Amino acid sequence: MMKVAVNNFVRRQIKGTGKTYSSTLTFEKIAAHAEVRMLLGFYRKGYRDGVRIVDSDPKLADQFFCPYVEVTPDTKLEATVVKRQEFEEPYIQIRALNGTPLKSRSVELILYRHDVLLENNEHTTDSDWELISINAIPESVEELPLGPVTMMRNQLQSSGGTKAHYSSEEWANSIHFWQNYAALKSG
To answer: Is residue 1 pLDDT above 80, yes or no?
Structure first.
């Protein structure tokens, strides 16, 4: 049996961070749910071998806060220089200061296999898989692309990145999407 544990990196996904979170489910319950869903075959390959996108049960979508708003001419945006983790290079993070959060259509649970996390010493357990990210997908969106900063970090193999290569179409889709949506700062 494949064991899924909680990586410390996902624990930053709490209220007020502009990230998907659940106020009703613990990280451990979410990881256990990911384990069950993966065993049932509700997953697909992520951006590289050793990364899986697990589709949560659609009945749980309303248990997760979707932090995204559509960017309109009335959207007020804030740019801040931040670091995800102390050892990473800072980047410019854009957050919406107003807008109505979109309703979650579904939730993707991002899992990394143990050997992939070992590449950069980013494992926090000895489990087969670790929950790295929780992504609410808005009702109006078919697929949530990786953010351009994440893609850059991965492709350049910067600190905090996991080796990957993206096509020009993947880059263009990411930039196009993130020009039309932003995470709500107070979400």
So the answer is: no
